[in-house]
Structures are given as C-alpha cells and as structure tokens.
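does this look right to u?? zinc ion version
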Amino acid sequence: MSELRQNPMTKEWVIMAADRAKRPNEFGHVHKKHERKVHDELCPFCPGNEHMTPPEVVRIPATEGEGWKLRIVPNKFPALFPECFPAWTIQRTLRSVKGSGAHEVIIESPDHSLCGALLPFENLITVLRTYRERFKQLSENPHIAHVTIFKNHGAGAGTSLEHPHSQVIASPVVSSPLRARFYEAMRHWDEFGECVFCQTLRDELDEDKRIVFNGHEFVAFEPFAARSPFLTHIFPRRHMASFGDVRDSELEELAGVLHNTLWKMHSGLNDPDFNYTIMTAPHHESGTRHYHWYLEIVPRLSEVAGFELGSGTFINTVLPEDAAEFLRKVKIAQTHFANEFAGVV
Ligand SMILES: [Zn+2]
Ligand SMILES: [Zn+2]
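got this back:
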C-alpha cells in the first residue's frame, strides 16, 4: 500500500510507493564507475591547464610548493554575467531582466581523481570555507538577490567534467521555489511561533527513525517526505537563516558529516551521480527568525517522468526510514578516513 506524505517545510506532497521498487541494497548495482586518473592532460581544471579557463578570481595557494589548493574561475559558458547591468523590462504580463550576476566554478583540488566522496577531509573544510566567503562576497553586490552554491557529480547529475568542482550562481532574482519556501516558513511562524526547520529537526530527533548522523552541531537525516530515494538533509542545530553566518568550528563538523554521508553513498550505492545544494536565505535576510539554511544531497537514482513534471508530485520508491537504516549500516572504510570521521559518527 502506498502513502502520501507532506513536506512540512514546503507543503509539497510525495507518494511513497516502496512496493514498486528495488530494496535499498539493490541500488548499488545501478552504476559502475571507471578508475579516475590523478591528472588528465585534456582536463581544463588540471594543473598546467590554467590557460584553458577564464582568469581566476580566487586562488588558495598550496600549503607546500608553488601550486594551488583551490581556484575559483568564471564559468566559460556562464548563465549570468558580472559586467551586465540588471535592466528590467516589463510589458503587460511579460517581465524580463538582463542576465546580470555571476556564474563561477570552484575547482576543489588539483587532483583530478578526488571527486565526490573521495576529496580529503582537510580539502573539504577549505572548500566549505571558500563557499561561505564567496557567498558573502557576492551577496554584497546590491544587484544580487540570491546566491546558490551547488555541486553536480556525474553525467546523470548534469556535469561532463570529472575533475572535482562545484559552482556558484549569483542571480538578480529570487526563484519561485525559494520564495514559496519562505512564505511557508513565515506562515508556520505566524501560526506556531517557531521556525518550522527547528521544529522539524526536533521531531526527527524525537522520532529517531530517519537519522543518519547525529552530531553536536549538525544532523544528517532522510526527510519524512523525501522526493526521491536517499535524498538527504544536513541541518545545523543552531538556528541560522543564512549560510554566511556559519562559524569556523561548525564548518569543521559540517565537513565531517558531509564527508561521512557522501562516503556512505559512494560505498553503499556504488558511487552514484548526485547533486548537493546549500539551501540558504539570501545573506541580507540573515537575521530572519522563520528561515533556516540546510544542505540537500540528491543521489540521482531515479528519473523524473511525466507525472512529476505535470503534477509537481514526486513518487519515491524507497521509504526514508529504510534509506536511513541502510546508510547507517554502511561501514566507513578502515582507511585514513576512519580517524577523521571518528568525532561525528
Ligand atoms: Zn582534471
Ligand atoms: Zn530554525
């Protein structure tokens, strides 16, 4: 028997139809990835090929030697352009704005092979710190309404470049789904006098059926009304609307929880393609009491089809309770990862 579940933060309905599906442990056979090279001479993000990207806007030098640890470069084929003024046009119902903003690539490591879950913990801390700083810098531009930080891993998640990288898009408008989440969060505050995200986290911890990691500062869990198999949320325990307000000490634990979760997906689900996104309020809304930032990881294990596109209702074929139990049981490899993860398991 299926069940319809409502997401408390968006009011979206999801059909849980676990009977239609494979069991969680069968997802591991979907993809079979090849070994990745440490350096690819044709890759524009590999060291020695810096001339193949537009001039960098940020470089973090390597701890030793003359190389770099991380670079940020403008996207070679940007969706939005920093030099463009956001002139608006409104004609009857038709509204448009020039493509002003920024579209940048964060090259996370000089090592081509360290994609997805394989990026060392120390690199991931540097990457998260860079996310926060770039988010705040781009948010200072008065023409920017919202900054989105995201990662596409694998062709099924929208990238053809293997080299570890993520992207930042600074947009002159607030998207309709973000606006809807804001309205729902505000409505919840008006009704209950509490942040819906704080309340959701408390409920998840009380129920304790969908938790993957329970850390001091962050909790990873499979949301009650997850839209797709193994969709995972990482929530900060401290109420913060903007990702720009996360503290250094919190970033270290976030790196551990994210690393751990990606590793379990990599190992248990055989390196699936995935996207993750930082779902934050715009930084100028950082004091907002009703919104709460979080990180959403979406492994690409199922296809979006006509019903989802037409109705906006998703069908999830793996119960979040089963996905959480499966991920909890995936052992962290006894490699150099083990000690780094010890503090957050
Ligand atoms: Zn490369
Ligand atoms: Zn909150």
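Residues 40, 43, 45-46, 112, 163 surround zinc ion (ligand 1) (CB under 6 Å). idk if thats expected tbh
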